[in-house]
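## retry 2 of 3
previous attempt timed out at serialization; input unchanged, resubmitting
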Amino acid sequence: MNYLAQPAFGQLVARLRREKGLSQADIAGDGVSSSYVSRLESGHRAPTAQAVRHLSARLDVPEDTFLARSPQLVPVLLAEGVAALEDGRTAAAVTALTAAAEEAGDVAPESLWQVLWHLARAHERRGEQAERQRALDGLLAVAETLDSPALRLKALVQLAGRAHEAGDTDAALGLAERAHALHGRHPRLPGADGARALLVLAAAEAEAGRLSDAQRHVELALEVPAEELGPLRAEVLAAAASVAVRQGAAERGLALLEEALSGTDRKDGPLLWGRLRLAAVPLALRVHGTAAPHAEEWCREAASVVELLGEPLDDVRLTAVRAQLAFHRGEPAEAARLAARVLADPGPLPAQERTRTEILLHQAEIGLGRADEAVTALRAVAERLQAASSIDLAAEAWKALAEALVRAQH
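## retry succeeded, writing output
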């Protein structure tokens, strides 16, 4: 049999053993001593057919796990996966990239990094968050193996963003703080990557009620030269606008928002152009309420792009924004219908946005005459958020509850 050459064979045995929590003595046995396992893992002995049969049984893997494969297999699968991802064929991308990851035990870690990076992107686009989490965990492990600050930073930023989307504010803060500190120790790392770390850190701080810290960090991100940020500058401006509005600085927030929107060109980046307008609607409603200027127009503009080019998350966000607009127009039945549609989708909507939609649904239910059950539900949401240290979002829920109680008394 044509087994993997050393040291790849030994590295694979060691990896499989560690993944299963076994020692070298645990996988030793008749004809395969602990010292022989040690020499195999260090690459100092070539494997025999008997050793492969023994190890496959002890490690509970098929014998062909240890067979040599074409050196072109992983690069070809990677290329196929990336091509499918760029074409929007996300299911095909996941299939190819998952196969590449499974075959990558004997390839250079740099190649494994590329596989996991694109696999995480594919899972994100499909709303497969548990699978995306596993790919990102592997990504960070590979970055640590390579001892690459640049790759470690990218992995930490992605993991922090994932934790924030999942509603795990403490984990998001910890990961984002690590990413920010890492960039500070390596000032030659790209400024845009440093800004991404600051953005996710500020988002987590805002959810935790640490608005002054969030403001400081978005301002640091704005100090990165515009030419380094590129299209990311519009996202930084939008984040700064959100923090300013939450702090009560409505005029500054709206000025930053207008700068963000005017800084994007539909021709150059239509999806970003649409996403920024979609994100602008809730911010404008928060400041102006029912009379929010341009809110309906921004939603229509966003829809013209999202419905053509968007991913599943964009579609769900569009429905959630339409629910907010319906509520502010005084159409509780339509708001409740759209909010319930969003909440019925277990897919990719981040936890904070899902909770805001849940709050909106209960507010709409009050307008439909179901005050008692809506008040009970709002109180439960507020208490849950308070316990999870989502201070900013908990404040929104308590405010909605107070308004509901006032309306219920009249």
